[in-house]
Amino acid sequence: MKKSYLISTKKTTVRQLLMAFLLAAGSLTSLSVNAAEDKTVIGRWDLTVNMGGRIAPSWLEVKLSGVKTLVGYFVADGGSARPIAHVQVAADGKIHFSIPPQWERVEKYMELDAVLENDQLKGTITSSSGMTFPFTGERAPLLKRTTAPVWGKPISLLNGKNTGGWHASGNRNQWELIKGVLTSPQSGSNLITDTKYNDFKLHVELRYPAGSNSGVYLRGRYEVQVEDNAGKEPSSTYFGGIYGFLTPNEMVAKAAGEWQSYDITLIGRRVTVVANGKAIIVDQIIPGITGGALDSKEAEAGPIMLQGDHGPVEYRNIVITPAK
After folding, report:
1. DSSP β-ladder status, 270-275 and 278-285
2. Is the backbone of residue 179 left (phi > 0), alpha (psi -120 to 50) or beta?
3. Burial of 244 by CB count in 10 Å (0-12 exposed, 13-18 middle, 19+ buried)?
4. Beta strand pairing status for 166-168 and 132-139?
5. Within 10 A of 175 (CB to CB), how many other CB atoms are there?
6. Predicted local distance difference test score (pLDDT) of residue 39
7. 45: Cβ contacts below 8 Å, ≥ 6 apart
8. SS3 state of residue 240
9. Among candidate residues 87, 168, 156, the one with its CA nearest the CA of residue 121
10. Among 7, 25, 179, 301, whose CB has the most other CB atoms within 10 angstroms?
11. 182-205 burial, b for 16+ CB within 10 Å, e for fewer?
12. What would the 3-class secondary structure string for 117-149 be?
């Protein structure tokens, strides 16, 4: 009897294991199907938000983590890339994103609701303050280059007399060219080149007082941070970082009040930043636009923009070498 009982128990155990395996396999198949359905939204998206008549750029990235969990990052019209707390794709195709506050002084999450139609995202963004704005989204271009760039002649972006060739982002232009130095003595407008560029090499020298903050926007979309961070550990939001995305391999900022330099190469999405003679970001891919970008039209050429709305700053010897 004891032997028979053991055999029966073993058979039962085998059947149970088999059933458990089949159920698990079925569950995995179901998860895989769901994940496959969700993959339609996976990728990077350039968003255009209508904020009551003001068109603002944003950016969204959705990734698959494991077999079924969707995660991502979001860039609003200001701030830096922030993690998305929750991504949910419903059976009817509606997509919901919950996005934690960043610089907003409230606890309420930002909510993004969208549908995917003809490979475009369409929906609404409800801000942490409760305001709702419509948006559309296009898949972000890869910006891959199939051949090496052929560089043209270097062009000075300062004429030595005034701010000709540039225009201010706002009604009040606080920028002046004083003895060859482009000077923003106080917070005000950003300054933007009239000419737009695709791939280029850019040399710029800069100086700021203690505690100040500025930035150099490549194509008007990707900010290379300018900030008084000497002596700190490197960060994507500190000196030399691609704001919120790429962290320099070391902190090379000089003390406030000293002239410093950037030599930046941008080819498609690939960027190299040499700061004060040291390569701190080497041939890295910029995922998307940074906060404060002029627009989200990443496939198009764009200007050089100098941030002037965060604090006093000076620039000189700004020279661009565009690709032919």
Report:
1. antiparallel
2. left
3. buried
4. unpaired
5. 22
6. 58
7. 59, 60, 61, 62, 121, 137, 138, 139, 140
8. coil
9. 87
10. 301
11. bbbeebbbbbbbeeebbbbbbbbe
12. ECCEEEEEEECCCCCEEEEEEEECCCCCCCCCC
pTM: 0.87
State the average pLDDT for the chain. 89
Which of the residues in the chain have pLDDT under 70? 1-39
Residue range 124-149, pLDDT digits in tens: 999 999 999 999 999 999 999 999 99
Residue with tokens 């800069």: 206
pLDDT for position 30: 30
Two tokens at 255?
Answer: 């003390």
- Residue 237, Cβ neighbours under 10 Å: how many? 20
Distance of alpha carbon 141 from alpha carbon 159, whole angstroms: 34
pLDDT at 294: 97
Q: Which amino acid is at 249?
A: N
Residue bearing tokens 């290379």: 224
Using the 8-state DSSP alphabet, how is residue 323 labeled? B
pLDDT at residue number 122: 97
Contacts 24+ apart (CB under 8 A), 95-101: 95/41, 95/121, 95/123, 97/60, 97/72, 99/74, 101/128
The rounded distance, in Å, linking the Cα atoms of 65 and 313 is 42
Output the pLDDT for position 171. Answer: 87
Instruction: Tell me the residue type at 207.
Output: R
Residue 43: name the closest of 70, 12, 4, 77 by CA. 70
